[in-house]
Amino acid sequence: MSESTLTSKGQMTVPKDVRDQLGLQPKDVMTFTVLPDGTVIMRAKKRKLLDLAGVLQVPKGKRVSLAQMKR
To answer: What are the tens digits of pLDDT across the range 13-45?
Structure first.
């Protein structure tokens, strides 16, 4: 288990073993989620929106235009 200390300015260093395991680089963004029981989940935002291109498959069947949907 790795530890880090919070500075008086509210900053902390992510331990090297954690950075290495997550593949973190300078300027990577981290998100923090606080659960009701006080548990904190830290996630590295490594994916960009463009990384998701092509993930969804086009549904089969008849295509409907936006105008047709509004009717």
So the answer is: 999 999 999 889 998 899 999 999 999 999 988
For the chain, the domain total comes to 1
Rounded to two decimals, the pTM is: 0.57
The Cα 18–Cα 4 span in angstroms is 11
Helix (H, G, I), strand (E, B) or coil at 53: coil
Residue 63 included in any domain? no
Kindly report the CATH number assigned to the domain that includes residue 4: 2.10.260.10
Give the bridge partners for 29, in sequence order. 45
Look up residue 26 and give its DSSP letter: T
